[in-house]
Amino acid sequence: AQAISAQAKRAQPSQALSPFRAPLSTAFGAMVKRSSSSVMAGAVVLSGASAGVGQTFSSLVALPGVQSHAQVGVGAQRPAAQMGGMGASSVLGAAALAAVTLNARRRAPKPLHQSGCVAMAARGGDLSFETLVSDLETVMKAKIVAPSSSAWPGGMGASSVLGAVALAAATWNARRRAPKPPHQRGCIAMAARGGDLSFETLVSDLETVMKAKNCGALIIRLAWHDAGVFSNGALKGGCPNAAMRFTDGGEGSFGANAGLPDVAVGLLKPITDKYVPALISNADLWQFAANVAIRVMGGPSIKTRFGRKDAASSAESVESQEGRLPDGDKGIDHLRDIFYPKGFDDKAIVALSGAHTVGGCKLERSGFEGYWTEEPLKFDNAYFKDMLSKEYASETTAKGCPQHRNVATGTIMLISDLALLSDPAFKGHVERYAADQSAYFADFSEAWVKLQENGCSDLRDSL
């Protein structure tokens, strides 16, 4: 500090800080990052160091460290005529009071600037304490502009301005780091992890993933297999709890879930990292993502309720996939054995089967191979139309699994799909859905929401 002061007295104003640009830049940058008390102490040192520097402050504010940690100087926004009559002690006093005000504003029953600073308020025409506080807050948010010499009147020297800026920097940092009320903590955590998180940004991010990766059908399968383990028959329990996140055992290791813990969960990872747990649980995210996927692919808009709890480990999985998830190589009796204990009737079984209108089978995951429809990224009633209008020939895949294929289009149907035509009670619904897509969407939505909420309690309508 003494060296800078002495150099300032000997040198021309424009040269006074030249030897000290780098160390001052580093020191100021580091200082602004420290705690409130450290920065205020630093402000006193820098204020003393700059005594006699005068108008060389225009050089100081151009330092990289200053420009990178405070942005638009107060003086750059006030003409010289308005700053007259407000000396160094007044500005530093106002800056200190502004620091107190900023830190205490949320906690005080009334604004502290109403407590005895009226005399300081209007010494320069339209200047007021409020405008000074506003400018000191702005200095932390915008960009410091090195002012011309005329912008800094003799009554407001470099030490005054530097002290005010440093104190404002301290205040802004302290305000950022201060403990937040419980209702604000989640928002701060969200902001730090991915910006302004909200229901709207979540929807937007999910839509982006579905469109960019064409993964909607896989996300629907993830949600279906997470929720579909529920049973209230001979087998009990199960719920959508995202237990597939754990691959050391349980649902994450079920053969029926091949491709879900790694590929499907991996596709959602950027969303998960950004929103879980700050805004939503994994279990809620999987179900909500599926509903977004259905809508993005042209299907119905399905309301999601929230409040599902995440499994803490694989130990919270159900004991087995057997008797809980349907097999593609079995018929009507098997479908009823699986779905009736979940609370579904024949209509719901047919409606839920209609989700095969999107996506397809991967040989390496299920042993089956092929797409059900010619537009596997479009959620419509083509599954039912194809089932009634196309001819399918039996075949066996390279993995030894029996299925049916339409030779002309290459699309497939599983045994469990064509079984819907073997029972009049099921076939009637197939015919109705093939003829009326709106009826299919309505019945599917009803059955799908029930599937998503089976085993859950205390769900709410919003995040």
The low-confidence parts are 12-17, 31-86, 88-102, 104-125, 143-156, 180-194
Give the % helix: 40-55%
Calculate the mean pLDDT score and round it.
Answer: 76
Radius of gyration from CA coordinates: 34 Å
H and E string: HHHHHHHHHHHHEEHHHHHEHEHEEEHHH
Approximate strand percentage: under 5%
Shape type: elongated
Multimeric state: single chain
Spatial order of strands in the largest sheet: 5-6-7
Query: Cα distance, first to last residue?
Result: 55 Å
Most strands sheet: 3 strands, antiparallel
Q: Class by helix and strand content?
A: mainly alpha
How many helices does DSSP assign? 22
Overall strand count: 7
Summarize the structure.
The protein has helices at residues 2-10, 21-33, 36-49, 57-60, 64-69, 80-83, 88-104, 129-139, 158-177, 182-194, 199-213, 216-227, 260-267, 269-275, 282-296, 332-339, 346-353, 363-366, 382-389, 415-418, 424-435, 437-453; strands at 231-232, 236-237, 360-361, 370-371, 393-396, 402-405, 412-413.
